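[step 3/7] fold_predict: job queued, chain A
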Amino acid sequence: RSGAVPKRSHARARIIHMNSNSILVSLFKYKAWANAELHAALEKFDAQQHPNAFRAMLHTLDHANVVDRIFRSHLDGTTVPSFKATHSEPTPSLSELRETVKSTDDWYLQFASNISAERLKHRVHFTFTDGDKGSMSCEEILLHVITHSGYHRGSIGQMLEDMGTNSPPDSLTKFLHRQEPERRLSA
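[step 4/7] structure written:
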């Protein structure tokens, strides 16, 4: 029949979708791992000795998570009337942030695990907190969430280094090799 799509195209689309989803799932697992590593490092940080630096790190961590939650609302179609800015007021404690970040990371991992290839391409229209309009595909939103949080984890890592504390591991290669140590053995 003319117009019928060959079976091979359907199978290839499923493989591409599986690869796309597996990459997104892997990146969101990595993001959750890196966030947990950062929270563990901040637990050990001497906030009493460096209160201003600690507040700045919490503020940055909060900002990254608020942005994650704003884009989550764009993806699931809910509104976020409580977010008038890309940070909370007041800044939550580390334990509050740990819970919220874990919950948000879990949501994204579930979402990325189940999203269809068609939905990845779906364009979402939204309003930024400053009132400007925007639109991105679901796939672009997911990639933004991954890269945006990585940028801010890096900022916090640099603050820790500046205070004489080692920054936590935060690279995809470290994550992959810790998750699958046999990768090092077969190299």
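[step 5/7] annotate
Confidence is low (pLDDT under 50) at residues 13-18.
The chain is about 70% helix and 5% strand.
exit 0
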